[in-house]
Write a structure and sequence with these properties.
The protein is mainly beta and about 375 residues long. The protein is built from seven helices and 28 strands. It has two domains: about 190 residues, Acid Proteases (Cathepsin D, subunit A, domain 1); about 150 residues, Cathepsin D, subunit A, domain 1, CATH 2.40.70.10. The protein is about 10% helix and about 40% strand. The strands form four sheets. The chain has a six-stranded mixed beta barrel. A six-stranded mixed β-sheet has the order 13-14-17-26-18-25. The radius of gyration is 20 Å and the shape is globular. The protein starts with a strand and ends with a strand. It is found in: Secreted. This is Pepsin F. GO terms for molecular function: aspartic-type endopeptidase activity.
């Protein structure tokens, strides 16, 4: 079960190039991104996703749903658990330029009639729960529960190159009473090991991959270092510290971190991130993004994330990104207020491009090793 992932232009880049970014960021402040709402009323079928911020999602893979198969580009997202795609019944403008699922064309489709609402940072996805065969990477997952959207979450989806989301978080993070895709692969005996792994290529579009049921050792060097999942909800672990030149600059008495393929940046508590931006001399631009001198790539030291006693350096070439027109941006961003992120970090694709990552559900551990 190996699915190639293609790196796409993110919504943020699309908005920036259309000069719509400032307007968007003012309307959707980033601090909504990760307030997890335990609320929501299960009887009404309303389930609050951990608030995702889809501005920066950048890796998509192809799946198909139904018999005969209908194809969709989805984000394989370890920071959420549900699968959803747009439906032919969706009237949002966002659905007009995406692949939509037509239940009438599938002989294996079953409707549950259960309405679902997934609340995201930038709006709500309203739809209904259905069941059908989902195929990807040679795997055939039968009677998979998934969401069909009737209304897309917010205007931002109009700028998205992907159609939907395939979540790989723990079941406790997903819709109650549904079995997530990964759990079905395991229950149906489709994979030999209860794990999956991501390799995100440092190169341009091609070369990234998500693999299910086994680990291809050619994607990393040295040994995998295994870290226990500290809370089986997100793929969350305990981090020792964050340092630069041997001096701790964040997470000084330890903190929590989430390994998240559905976030592209390094996200932390706002006051701490603000301090890191100062240390690396990144300044806020009019659109609210942090801009940094491109030459700093050659002079700034690594920022080292220490996890379970092992150092994971992130060099300046990774925490600085070059946008169009030769402007460089900091890859650190501040997350939500609220209790959840008070001392938590989200390690997104910036980290995952450097470190091959195995998500082992069977042992509730995360394996990390330098990516080749």
């Amino acid at each position: 079960g190996r699915i190639p992932l293609t790196r796409i232009k993110s919504i943020r880049e699309n908005l920036r190039e259309k000069d719509r970014l400032k307007d968007y960021l003012e309307k959707h402040p980033y601090n909504l991104a990760y307030k997890f709402l335990e609320s929501g009323d299960p009887d009404l079928g309303i389930h609050y996703e951990p608030m995702r911020n889809y501005l920066d999602l950048a890796y998509v893979g192809t799946i198909s749903i139904g018999t005969p198969p209908q194809e969709f580009k989805v984000i394989f997202d370890t920071g959420s658990t549900d699968l959803w795609v747009p439906s032919i019944y969706c009237s949002s403008p966002a659905c007009a330029n995406h692949n939509v699922f037509n239940p009438l064309l599938s002989s294996t489709f079953r409707i549950s009639g259960r309405p679902i609402h997934l609340q995201y940072g930038s709006g709500r996805m309203s739809g209904f729960l259905a069941y059908d065969t989902v195929r990807f990477g040679g795997l055939v997952d039968e009677s998979q529960g998934f969401g069909l959207s009737l209304r897309e979450p917010g205007k931002f989806m109009e700028y998205a190159v992907f159609d939907g989301i395939l979540g790989l978080g723990y079941p406790s993070l997903g819709l109650r009473g549904t079995i997530p895709v990964f759990d079905n692969l395991w229950r149906q005996g489709l994979i030999s090991e209860e794990l999956f792994a991501f390799y995100l290529s440092k190169k341009e579009e091609e070369g990234s991959v998500v693999m299910f049921g086994g680990v291809d050792h050619s994607y990393y060097s040295g040994e995998l270092n295994w870290v226990p999942v500290s809370r089986p909800f997100y793929w969350q672990l305990s981090m020792d510290s964050i340092s630069m030149n041997g001096v701790v600059i964040a997470c000084d008495s330890g903190c929590e971190a989430i390994i998240d393929t559905g976030t592209s940046l390094l996200i932390g508590p706002s006051d701490i991130v603000f301090n890191i931006q100062k240390i690396i001399n990144a300044n806020q631009s009019y659109s609210g993004e942090y801009i940094i001198d491109c030459d700093a790539v050659n002079t700034l030291p690594d920022i080292v994330f220490t996890i379970n006693g092992i150092n994971y350096p992130v060099p300046a070439s990774a925490y600085i990104r070059e946008g169009h027109q030769g402007i460089c941006y900091s890859n650190f961003d501040e997350g939500a207020g609220g209790s959840f992120l008070s001392d938590s970090w989200i390690l997104g694709d910036v980290f995952l491009r450097l470190y091959f990552t195995v998500f082992d559900r069977g042992n509730s551990t995360i394996g990390l090793a330098p990516a080749v």
